[in-house]
Model the fold of this input.
Amino acid sequence: MILLNNEELKNINGGSISGTLISSIVKGISLIFDLGRSLGSAIYRLVNKKCCKA
Done:
């Protein structure tokens, strides 16, 4: 194993796209799909007048 000094450690660059960024994008897309599904179900129930009686 090679040990790096402080100057070498400062020059280390990570990738342009991180795993956290990809995870956030995927969660955002799934949130949009879930909202669309919920909205579609609500519209379907309103149009067809199919509601559960509480």
User: Anything to note?
Assistant: The radius of gyration is 24 Å. The helical segments are 6-10, 19-48. The chain has two helices and no strands.
